[in-house]
Structure prediction request, 575 residues.
Amino acid sequence: MRPSLKAATVAGMLLFLLIILVPFWWIASMSFKTYEQIQFATSIYVPNPFTWENYTGLWTDTRFPLWLRNSLVTALVVTATTTVVASLGGYAVARLRFPGREAVASLILILYLIPPALLFIPLYRVLAELGATNHLSSLFLSYPTFTVPFCTWLLIGFFKALPDELEEAALIDGAGRVTAFLRVLLPLAAPGLVASAIFAFTLSWNEFLYALVFIQDEQAITVPVGLNLLIYGDVFHWGQLMAASVITTIPVVALYVFIHRWMVEGLVAGSVKG
Amino acid sequence: MRPRASVWRRARIREAGTALLFLLPLFVLVVALIVYPVYRAAWLSLTDKLVGYPERFVGLQNYAYLAQDDTFHAVIRNSVVFTVGSVGLKVVTGVLMALVLNNVVRGRNFLRGLFLLPWITSTVIIALTWRWMFDAFPGRGFFNSVLLDLGLMRRPIAFMATPEGAMMAVIVANWWRGFPFFGVSFLAGLQSIPRELYEAASVDGASTWRRFWHITLPGLKHVMIVTTLLSFILTINDFNIVYVMTRGGPGTATQIFATYSYQVAFGQLRWGRGVTICLFVVPILVIGIILISRYLLRDRK
Prediction:
């Protein structure tokens, strides 16, 4: 590599690192500052003195533990239903021959592109008629509208990439399609299922619009909506807000570190081939 | 020949039956929670539904009202500025990020993973953080602190309090969240360009710039079109970033389709009109979906 190109690469990399990391550093450093340090900007770039009071305060003075529990329950329920529905659908579209298969594939893609902004008002009415608003069940029902199309689309790719021979062998041995699916293909597609489950979890964990619109009951608030309550209360709890952001981001980053290679490949596969 | 053919036919019918069974949960979900609500949205937009009152059919009145509503005109302008601004920035930075990462020899996968962090972080957290970084209080915020400490400014500026500053802030936050995905997709695109093309061009004495213009950019065309369309659809329908950072303000300076729809539907309780605002995006959505489907479904074949 030419020296000038090498220098440009190093400079570019440092610049991108700075752009990516500054907001994360802002969140992390603010979460360890006292209220006075933040209000009067006494130590802007690093917490001095360093304090855990935002974290302990978050746990004892706010409803954050409850929001966290609601978010976790919602994300787990949605991930479970999404994985079942999407793996069945993804398998059918990828590996079974039936009339209208192409149409179903396009339909899934179209559904993935329908924005929640278009659905939130009518969905609210439908959920209200079902008596599901103001309760976490409204999220269990509405989140699959975006997780299922996305995960099905992802899993179609994974199922298509599996070799035909193993499934054919099972079919010749007398296994039905359902057995072949459960015993042979599902285990083979495990990396895809994990990636899809993590996507479903992350999307549900971070969702804001539906949670804001469908739920008013304080007992059923999830983290993203709760975070906004920390600012629009009487006092600006920026320190606690940043501590909450750290705690909320950690599980997602942990999951992501665990699977990031599959995730990136799965994501990119859809848009790059060709 | 005959019995064999019928065995095959029966097998095929059985297979279609299995497919139907497997797709059933998906169909139920889609019809009940997507198709039916979309139909309800279309119907609501033809009524003057106010919360607490029964809906009355009013034809195209909501559409006619919005067509001459000054606030809605501002919403259209803001949505275009917001979308074109952030998607344009994402494309340019995405290309740069991919070029940089493509030249990194050691630790490329690690950096790729690290750069994607904004993309998996909650949008609400991102919006809150950028809002504070741009703001002048509490404690001056990030940009004010840096600019003051570098001696580039005398007094803190409340960026979020001016229409241009607020629009810039929401664009930056949206850009920051989205460009890593562009970079990672473009990187995969770069890696699929055959090396021989570059070698041949070098032999012919083509400059770096010419190689970039005639090999790299055409090689990235496909992935660029797909990611740009995808991001365009997601951005023009964005709600989280604008709602959390500005609530559409100051005034209506950053009000976009989804936030305005929310304000009209849940602030003024006019559901008919609120739904209509979002339906105005549908033609753009349809064009985008058709284009993306053509590109993506062609790949899958």
In short: The CA atoms of residues 146 and 152 of chain B lie 9 Å apart. Chain B has two domains: 1-44, 60-300. DSSP finds 14 helices and no strands in chain B. The mean pLDDT of chain B is 88.
